[in-house]
Specification:
- The protein is mainly alpha-helical.
- It has a single domain, classed as Up-down Bundle (Four Helix Bundle (Hemerythrin (Met), subunit A)).
- The chain is about 55% helix and about 10% strand.
- It is built from 5 helices and 4 strands; from the N terminus they run αββααβααβ.
- The strands form 2 sheets. A two-stranded antiparallel ribbon has the order 1-2. It has a two-stranded antiparallel ribbon with strand order 3-4.
- A hairpin with a 2-residue loop joins strand 1 and strand 2.
- Helix 1 packs antiparallel against helix 2 and helix 2 packs across helix 5.
- The N and C termini lie far apart (about 35 Å).
């Protein structure tokens, strides 16, 4: 955060825990989010909208979604500017989780 000029620290612990837990939420032993794209979208939307940190919520959201996809075998093939635009659209409440999940699905390919 120091490099980007923002403040550091957790602003709302409960919102952080919510953003972390939402992708793994279950009902009747079934995940509520489809693996992996709805789960990645849940990280992106949750961290962006929950404002758990003093600063850097959108950066954390982008990193969480991209890293989640990568560790689960997917390569996000979206230009940096397009991915930033996606995160900003979520922050402006212009995109909801299903649309984000579809964009991620369309922009990913399985890693070898």
């Amino acid at each position: 955060m120091a490099d980007a000029g923002g403040g550091d620290g957790i602003l709302k612990q409960a919102e952080l825990e919510s953003a972390l837990a939402a992708p793994q939420a279950t009902y009747g032993k079934r995940y509520l989010n489809e693996f992996p794209f709805e789960m990645a979208a849940s990280y992106l939307v949750g961290f962006t909208m929950n404002h758990a940190f003093v600063d850097g919520n959108k950066r954390v959201a982008a990193a969480a979604a991209a890293v989640f996809l990568r560790i689960n075998g997917y390569e996000l093939r979206m230009a940096q500017g397009a991915f930033s635009d996606l995160v900003l659209a979520v922050a402006r409440s212009e995109m909801k989780k299903p649309a984000v999940a579809q964009l991620l699905r369309d922009a990913c390919r399985r890693r070898r």
